Prior knowledge:
Blueprint: H1 12-21, H2 35-51, E1 59-61, H3 63-71, H4 73-80, H5 88-104, H6 112-126, H7 129-136, H8 139-159, E2 170-179, E3 184-194, E4 205-210, H9 216-233, E5 239-244, E6 249-254, H10 257-278, H11 303-319
Parallel strand pairs: 1-3, 4-5
Antiparallel strand pairs: 2-3, 3-4, 5-6
The protein binds iron/sulfur cluster.
The site of iron/sulfur cluster (SF4) has 15 residues, from helix 4 and helix 11.
Amino acid sequence: MSDLTEPPKLNPAQQQVTDDLGAKREERPSFRDDLREHLRHEIEETIGPVLTDIAELPMFVSKHDLSTLHSCEARYVAERNIDFAWTVPMARGSVAHKAIELLVTWRGEPVPLELVDEAMARLVASERGVGVFIHSLTEAERAELAGRANDFVATFLDTFPPLNRRWVPVAESRVRAELCEDQLALQGRVDLSLGRPDGNVAGKVLIDFKTGRPSVAHIEDLRFYALLETLKVGVPPRLLVNYYLEAGEPRREEVTEDLLWSAAKRLVDAVGKLIELDARTPRSPTTSPGPACRWCPAAGTCDDGRRYLARADEADEADGVLPH
Ligand code: SF4
């Protein structure tokens, strides 16, 4: 990332991203050697003794588990008990991510629709997850999905600087940490990483591409990835970036040791909840009504959620806003 001022010529939006993400070596933070061991020790000390309460081990924890558990425990349990169903709006993010992944090693002039078509073809060929959904679409639905994904990819190409191989770009980079004698697996996949550490000097930038509006959960997701990267490599990433594809806008956060300890605490809290909910004698999940009730699978049967939504709809009507 130190050569971000090299050609090709950048437009003002690309230059802004370049300035936001780049840093000279002397400006980069360095971290102590034993940080990884301390983080690992603290997490294992708290979680290890209670993991034995769980009937099914190892336990797998993702960023989605953490954010849902911290949002509403009852929603977490409800989501776990239903079959996941893809929709076109959800699939557009996956297609756009895949297209940007292809872009990293694409030779020649990248054309957004070609990248999108190729991304959809490769997802379908995988015969898994969103690929099965895309395969089931009618021609009109497929065209709508391609159009929406194309919008994101074109925005990315317009606003993000062309990826220089010397930045060590890695798309869909998997991060995983095994703790508590491999009984707890933390896992995630970063949309794009750039750079790498130099000794104890941080150099990696973790980037997640987001659709929709910025939220605190997006920040917490990247902090979780920063923790995983530290547990894996021993040196934390330098910078965390949520890149909002609709606005073409990066929101960045510098990584500090305090940030990593806060991510570790949030992880321990969430895993503690998971253990209580999954224990041989589980406790009942609590409810935390909020905006997420709108798309919660338990909304039809959850009294707290229904009361919240009724009040929110009344408030919207009073303000002249149509409920969505
Ligand atoms: S409807 Fe709301 S309060 Fe109820 S489980 Fe879902 S998110 Fe939680």
